Amino acid sequence: MKKEHLDKKRERFFNLVGENYYPDDLELVKLAYDFAATAHQSQTRMSGEPYIVHPLATAQKLAELNLDVPTIIAGLLHDIPEETEITVEQIEKDFGKEIAHLVDGITKLGKIKYRGIERYAENLRKMFVAMSDDIRVIFIKFADRIHNLKTLAALPPVKQQRIATESLEIYAPIADRLGMGQIKGEMEDLAFPYVYPQAYNWLLKIIPREYRTREKYLAQVKKLLEQELKNNHITSETVSIHGRTKHLYSLYKKLLRPDINKDISKIYDLVALRIVLPTIGDCYSTLGIIHKLYKPFPGRIKDYIAQPKPNGYQSLHTTVFADNGQIIEFQIRTTKMHEEAEFGIAAHWHYKEYQGNIDKKNTNWIKELVKWQQEIRDNEQFISSIKLDVFQNRIFVFTPKGDVIDLPEKSTPIDFAYHVHSWVGDKCVGAKINNQMVNLGAELKNGDIVEIITDKNRPGPSEDWLELTKTSMAKTKIKSAINKKKKITNLLTR
Question: Using an 8 Å Cβ cutoff, are 293 and 232 in contact?
Answer without folding.
Answer: no
